[in-house]
Each structure stands twice: as C-alpha cells, then as structure tokens.
Amino acid sequence: MRICYLSEEYPPETRRGGIGTYTREIACAVAQLGHEVNVITKTHGDPYDTEAEGVLVHRIPRPTTGLDDASHRVADLLARSLAVFTKVQELNSRHPFDIIEAPEIGSEALHLAFRRDFTLVTRFHTPTFLVRELNPHQAETVYPYTSPFPETADVLERLQALGSAGVTGISRSMARGISQRWDIPIERITVIPNPFNPDAVIKEDSAMYESMLKDTDYVLYYGRLEERKGVHVLAQALPPIFQRFPTIKAAFVGEDMGYGRSTMKDWVLTQNRGYEDRLIFVGHTEHESLFPIIRNAKLVILPSLWEALGYTCLESMALGKVVVATRGSGFEEIIDHGQSGFLVRPNDPADLASTVQEVLLRDLTPIERKSKARSLDFDSRRIAQRMVACYEELIGKSHTEVCRKGGSSPRS
C-alpha cells in the first residue's frame, strides 16, 4: 500500500506532543512492514522533502492569512487544510495513495473529506471540545483553535470525521465520548491503541539527570504542565506526602502551559510554601534526556483529569516504573489497579496523596515487573499490523462503494 499521514507535529522539527509521537511511531512501524509511507507535516521555514527512518517526509509551511483580528484563527484552519490538500494532490498525481490518515484536531484534512477519489481515515486523539473543557483556565495557551471560536473548530472537526471513509480512536473511552458528543455510531469507530516502540528507550543521555537529580529520591510528573493533565491537583497533594516522607522530592519535567494568568510552576510553588526546596522543575527535554529521569524515579504520577491513552504512561511502564494515574479514561485500559499500577479518582488531591503515600511504603518489585510486561501489549509491530488490516478493509469498502455507484476506482 501507499499510505499518507497528515500531522502538523512530526519530530524532530515540530515535536510538540502525543500526535507527533504517534505519527512517527505508526509511520515507521508501517514502513517496516514493507509499505510506502509518506508524512505531510509542518516546517517553520521553506518547504522541503526528506527521508527519515524509511518514511518520506514532506514539510510545508503553515500559510498566513494576513488577518490580524480574532477571526484569523478560523481562517488559519481553512488555509492549512487547503495547503495540505494541495500537497496531497501533488503527490497523489505522481502515484495515487491507497489511504490517507489525519487527526481530528485542527481539521487539517477537511478539504479531503466527502471526496470519492481519496480514502480518508480520521483518527480521534483529543478533539478541541475536550481540550477546552479540560483546560477552562488556560485553553487559549494550550491549543490556539480552542478560542475564540471553539464551536467553529468543533463543527469543522466533526465534518472531517463525518466525511471520512473510516474513523479510528485510540481508546474505548475516547470512542464513547466522541460518539455521544458528535452523534457518530459507536460501531463505526474502530478502536486501535497508539503504538509504542520499546526499543526507543535504549537511547539515553544521562547529563540532565546527573546535573539535576542524581542521588535524589523523587516522584516524577512529566508531560505538559497544564490543567487537563492534573498538575494543579498534584500540587495540592504534595504537602502531606512531603510531611510524611522528609527525604522525598517532586520533579516536574515538561513545557509550562500556564494556569490562569500565571504559570503552572507558580501555582505549584504557591501550594507548597515551606517545601520549595523539595520541588525540581526541569522544563521541556528531549526523550533521550528524559528516559534516565524516568528510570531513576521512585514512581511516576500522572493525575490527568481525563486522558485518551497516554504515551507518558506507556513509556514509564516500559522502563519498569510503577505509575499512579487516574480512573475514568484511557489509563484504565492500560493499568490493572493494584497489579500493574495504581488508579485514583481524578481531581481529588486527598485520594492522590493517600495513594502515593501507600505506594511509597510498598515493595514495588512485583508490580514493576507486571508494569513492564503490560507495556509490551502496545508494541508498535503488533499495532501496525492491526492498523494495516483496518486500512485494507476500508480500501475494500471504498472500492465496492465506488463500483456500486457506477464509478471507477481511483486506483483501478
């Protein structure tokens, strides 16, 4: 098959979050199965094409609309979608794509929806309406399309999904939420979790750990420092933990997305007056530097208000770490409470604090073993095979539908 992935995020130039990580993982894994894989992504400079890890990467700049008022954000959405469509047409004219996959957020495949000459798959990661609802005090800083027209972004993302030949979701929790909100039949959403490459943790650079955390007992939060990730909840849970365990510190690794009119770091410090020397803020760091920090943590705390699935969780488990995460979302589809990790109520500092204290008193060796074993269920090779099977089924359905309507298949 000839496959094209669309994603504004794609490392190393535009690595920002989970969508970029997913796109790289699935693109490389599918390419290793022998398929031709293209990625259309963003660049901050002039457009260029390159090949990396067996994947053909086409970087195009985000178009500028020339508008300087609030409406430019909606115009940006449409301009980006049109630019992506133009690039797809260019590449497709040389050799037609069998399948094109794009995330829902940002609706960058909108111009490809409802067309019979492309087989489009929309993958549900975390739509704008969820980002906004989970970040009521900072949505604009976290994702630009959540404000000032979140309803418009929501409509465009839903239209792209409705106009796709198929839709996939990264967790059952995600599928249920979108099915209810967007009135999409649940049976139409194929749930395939994000792939994870356990070999990725082999490459490590210990310089950051050595300089900031060596010989320190610490619990770790890593990921964006934002409201929907529950960092503000962890901040409130730390004082009783610090009081009971005088040598424990808390490390925060990730980009500070703000909280209200200030930074998340300021909020954490405010909630932990008298314990400032027990807090370590590393900031954003690349994975090679991050892995030693994860590996040497006492445990990893991921207190998200809601999480679709969570690469942070899988990475931690692959390194044999015990994770304390939250119930009611994708974490429950990874962690077996008390067996391969621990789950607490979301947005409940008291429950989080008491659970972390209990976990710190336990022998975690058997849980660490089960945690690492569980992460292998998300191995990239297994997930890629499931994804390719999904693509093949959709291609077959699209071909049948075209023939039934008396047209001709674009690949015939």
Account of the 3D structure:
With 412 residues, this protein is an alpha/beta fold. Helices cover 40% and strands 16% of the residues. It contains 14 helices and 14 strands. It has helices at 18-32, 72-94, 128-134, 139-142, 150-162, 172-182, 207-212, 231-244, 264-271, 287-295, 311-318, 349-360, 365-375, 380-404, and strands at 2-6, 36-43, 48-52, 55-61, 99-103, 120-124, 166-169, 189-191, 218-222, 249-253, 279-281, 299-301, 323-326, 342-344. The strands form two sheets. An eight-stranded mixed beta sheet has the order 3-4-2-1-5-6-7-8, sandwiched between helices. Strands 11-10-9-12-13-14 form a six-stranded parallel beta sheet, with helices on both faces. Helix 1 links the parallel strand 1 and strand 2 (36-43). The model is unreliable at 408-412 (pLDDT under 50).
Topology:
Elements: E1 2-6, H1 18-32, E2 36-43, E3 48-52, E4 55-61, H2 72-94, E5 99-103, E6 120-124, H3 128-134, H4 139-142, H5 150-162, E7 166-169, H6 172-182, E8 189-191, H7 207-212, E9 218-222, H8 231-244, E10 249-253, H9 264-271, E11 279-281, H10 287-295, E12 299-301, H11 311-318, E13 323-326, E14 342-344, H12 349-360, H13 365-375, H14 380-404
Parallel strand pairs: 1-2, 1-5, 2-4, 5-6, 6-7, 7-8, 9-10, 9-12, 10-11, 12-13, 13-14
Antiparallel strand pairs: 3-4
Helix pairs in contact: 1-14, 8-9, 8-12, 11-13
Relative helix content: 40-55%
Model regions low in confidence, pLDDT < 50 over at least 5 residues:
408-412
**Number of separate domains:** 2
Q: What's the architecture of the largest domain, going by CATH? A: 3-Layer(aba) Sandwich
Strands, count: 14
For the sheet with most strands, the description reads: 8 strands, mixed
- CA radius of gyration is 22 Å
**Broad shape:** globular
Amino-to-carboxy terminus distance: 14 Å
Q: What string, H for helix and E for strand, traces the elements in order?
A: EHEEEHEEHHHEHEHEHEHEHEHEEHHH
What is the CATH topology descriptor of the largest domain?
Rossmann fold
Structural class: alpha/beta
CATH top level assignment of the largest domain: Alpha Beta
Q: Would you tell me the overall average pLDDT?
A: 89
As laid out across the biggest beta sheet, the strand order is 3-4-2-1-5-6-7-8
Number of helices: 14
Assigned CATH superfamily of the largest domain: Glycogen Phosphorylase B
Beta-strand percentage range: 15-25%
